[in-house]
Write a structure and sequence with these properties.
By secondary structure, the chain is an all-alpha fold. The protein has one domain. Helices cover 69% and strands 0% of the residues. The protein is built from 4 helices and no strands. The chain has helices at 4-27, 32-53, 57-76, 93-102. The protein is globular. The protein starts with a helix and ends in an 8-residue tail after the last helix.
Length: 110
């Protein structure tokens, strides 16, 4: 049985990734390389949420690894007009909330 906080986290994060996917199609005409990278990240993030939905540890590891890769790529190749570089702590808010929700149930993940 999946705990309610993990269920809510999966649903909210999936909705966020689907909205991000919509933005990929708009950005494809301006910067196809960035759009392809973002599409890869969104697809892999959706796979990680499906893993967490099935209560698998690999889903958590995949998500945290992807987040680290996306932050590294963001700082290596910052997009123009990005305000996130002014407030870098905001970038770590999402994985912090993710960890607070998921890690209490770590032993229940297989």
């Amino acid at each position: 049985m999946r705990p309610l906080p993990i269920t809510l986290l999966c649903v909210l994060m999936l909705i966020a990734q689907l909205l991000e996917l919509r933005g990929v199609f708009y950005a494809a005409f301006q910067n196809p390389v960035r759009a392809l990278w973002t599409f890869f990240l969104v697809a892999a993030a959706i796979a990680s949420f499906l893993g967490l939905w099935r209560m698998r540890r690999w889903g958590v590891c995949l998500y945290l690894g992807l987040y680290a890769a996306s932050v590294a790529a963001f700082y290596a190749f910052p997009p123009p007009e990005s305000k996130m570089l002014d407030q870098p702590l905001l970038m770590f808010l999402v994985p912090a909330v993710y960890c607070v929700v998921v890690f209490p149930y770590w032993k229940r993940l297989s």
